[in-house]
Amino acid sequence: MTDRVRGPIVWFTGRPASGKSTLAQALRPILEARRPVEILDGDEVRAWLSDDLGFSRADRDRNIARIAQVACLLARNGVAVLVAAVSPYAAARAQARALADSQAIPFFEVFVSAPLAVAAQRDPKGMYQRAQAGQIANFTGLSDPYEEPDHPDLVIHTDAETVMASTDHVVAALRARGLL
What we know:
Blueprint: E1 9-13, H1 20-32, E2 37-41, H2 42-48, H3 57-76, E3 80-84, H4 90-102, E4 107-113, H5 116-122, H6 127-132, E5 154-157, H7 163-176
Parallel strand pairs: 1-3, 1-4, 2-3, 4-5
């Protein structure tokens, strides 16, 4: 076993188009000044690791479990991992945290909060519009639930502040926890 310091996992969860990926991208250069950083973006992971899965609850849970496994593998090797995934179910997020905890990997959950109307308005992929038109089934926040975290490590309200202000809040919280 190596004495390498484990990287933290910063898990951004929130509705589609709430700002998870944007925050992860903004945080990346700040963390890269201190250690290697990897972003596990939900859309990208779906394309290269979970393209065999659908959007049932079981498949979404399996997807989150896969993301957690990859995040832990990277973090065990000193990489700061920024996960930007909807991860709509509390139980799956709890399992991701438990997996990290079992390996002594710091896990920091950030709830990226944006009201449904704001997320739908800023949606760059037009997913909300397609879901409302019946073209996407089981869409999180509309026809499928998003379970807001009860006790996240940090809540960011992306509808009420700039990306830089939100990033500053994440950095301050990570510093306060000794993760930066």
